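Before a colleague's protein record goes any further, I have to sign it off. I want your independent view on whether this chain really folds as the tokens say. The record follows directly below this note.
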Amino acid sequence: MSGAIRTGYHSKHVAWLEFSNPGKRNALSLAMWKALPETLDTLSANTDLRVLIVSGAEEHFSSGADISEFETVFKTYESSKDFNDAVDSGFEKLVHFRAPTIAKVRGGAVGGGCGLALACDIRIADETAFFAITPAKLGIVYPFPEISRLNTTVGIPMAKDMLFSARKVKVDEALRINLVNQLFPANALEAEVLGYAETLASHSPHSLKVTKEVMEHIEAGGIDSSDAITQKIADAFQSEDFKKGYNAFLEKRKPQF
């Protein structure tokens, strides 16, 4: 297999997932796309996990799909559908991962690589990072859910610019248009991302999980709360996490979740 998806843990509550195919700027082969959902399911099954950091090996985040496979994967309608289904499944599993996800971006996040970064809840980059969405150069069309996610993140006018021009968006502009949440020097990125992840992991996992569900509902076009979400928000006041947080507040100490 060309490339691999690697995983591990920084601590009990913070895991990492890495796209590793550095010879191709961490492009994802069909085998890697197919492995992504199962890999995410395995991580999600660990109930101790509270935050997932997503990155690419060495100098780049990801250049997206491995173009060298296109002649094979797009040879027939059936093979094209198989490839697109695998990509869609990978994106959806990452978007709906049960815990907060952080894209740690250095170097290029291009094409599907930009989509993978957008599929994460938070994007933290260093000064080498850049973004581009390039289907217009290939005569193909970016998937609908990923266009929608781009629109939500940067706004329709900027999304049109990025999609129509396929231009490189440098990291300072990415920060300005909310494509990136935080920007750090290259030598500080690792420590800053890990510190941020540990901060999130120190908070109530129940609160983080339900809040993520609320945000997904809003991002999917929900104007009003659903009955299920309203109930989950109400139930939080009866949760063990609330008792821990409330007692810690009264006792003027840091809660231990």
In short: The radius of gyration is 19 Å. The first strand starts at residue 4 and ends at 9.
